[in-house]
Amino acid sequence: MIKILLCLFCLSTTILVNSQNASSTSIHFAPTSFSNSFSLNREPVLRIRSGDTISTETIDAGGFDKNGVRRQKPGNPLTGPFYVADCGKGDVLTVTITTLKLNRATAFTSESFSSRAVPKSIAKEVAKFKRIQWNLDTLAGFATVNDTSYEHLQNFKAPLKPFLGCMGVAPSNKKNEILSFFQGDFGGNMDFEGVTQHATVYLPVFHEGAYLYIGDGHALQGHGEIAGNALETSLDITFTVRVIRKEVLSLGYPRVEDSTFIMATGFGKSLDEALKIATAGLLEWLQHDYHLSLQEATQVISTSIEYTIAEIADPEVEIVAKIRKETLKTLKKFN
User: What is the per-residue pLDDT for 22?
Assistant: First the structure.
């Protein structure tokens, strides 16, 4: 009888532990420090688990918070790292952005062009850095230029579309660290407008705990970030993390998914290189989830692929290859 009771106690304890591990927690985190690099060498600011939901905030690329107070030196200061306790090397970390909101009424950009965007003769004409202020009307949903020297832009309005410029994990290189200007297989300074509310980002993981960072809030950005800056601002964000085991999914580069598209990213020194990586990533996604042969995939991709030039101003360019979910709904999904 005692033995039976002990077994029942052990069983109930196991069920309780498993239930606790399976449960998710909502956490509010107010950052007190920020990082200018994606790094394994920083003490985690918070330990979380798969299924947890975190609400927090970011500061702008110049280091200023929502109150206009400088909190960190310029250069895409990041909130984090968040240590995901049940995430291992080789796993995939998914980050679903449940809410993303502008938390102030101002942003800045620069009067410039990236050398990749225009002929050199044009880029030279605006080579001297000039910071341009913008006003953000969150109620009306528009941004307007706050500079009276632009006489023909006094009635110009650009629709707001806030997103995160930076999201990534600690990279795997000699120092396990890279400045937050850069992007790569770890994510990083992707500057892709698709990293926004209701989107899910898939990140390859290179270290135990992943070491997740977010930052570089944008109120709006045209494709390519051709000025070298978006409308740089600060954001409030709520996101949920989940871990996909490496036995289920293995990634070479980040992916993004929303209600409309599945999207594969590619980074490279040239647009050609980035395009090939992005296309290969989308091909891999289709073959994995829909069990398409290479021959079958040629027909789906060649008729339906779309591309976005997400970034050309950074050290590496970024192409996003995407396909509409509506197009895929007649295919049988296996994963």
Answer: 53
Rg (CA), the chain: 22
Token pair 């913008």: residue: 134
Contact indicator for 287, 245 with CB cutoff of 8 Å: no
Q: Which residues of 290-316 are buried (b: 16+ CB within 10 A; e: fewer)?
A: bebeeeebeebbeeebebbbbbbbbeb
How many other CB atoms sit within 10 Å of the CB of residue 24?
Answer: 14
Return the DSSP state at 163. Answer: E
Q: pLDDT per residue over 224-241, tens digit each?
A: 999 999 999 999 999 999
- Residue of higher predicted confidence among 18 and 25: 25
| Short-list 217, 238, 230, CA closest to 58 | 217
| pLDDT at position 14 | 32
E strands, 125-191, where?
131-137, 142-145, 158-159, 163-168, 177-179, 183-184, 187-189
Are the CB atoms for 323 and 262 separated by under 8 Å?
yes
Q: Which two tokens stand for residue 122?
A: 């044009």
Say if residues 117 and 256 touch (Cβ distance below 8 Å). no
Q: Which domains does the chain have, with CATH numbers?
A: 24-251 (2.60.120.580)
CA 93 to chain CA centroid, Å, is 12
Give the model's pLDDT for residue 20. Answer: 38
Q: How far is 215 from 194, CA to CA, in rounded Å?
A: 15
Which stretches does DSSP call E strand in 138-283?
Answer: 142-145, 158-159, 163-168, 177-179, 183-184, 187-189, 200-204, 212-218, 235-244, 255-257, 261-268
Mean pLDDT in the chain? 93
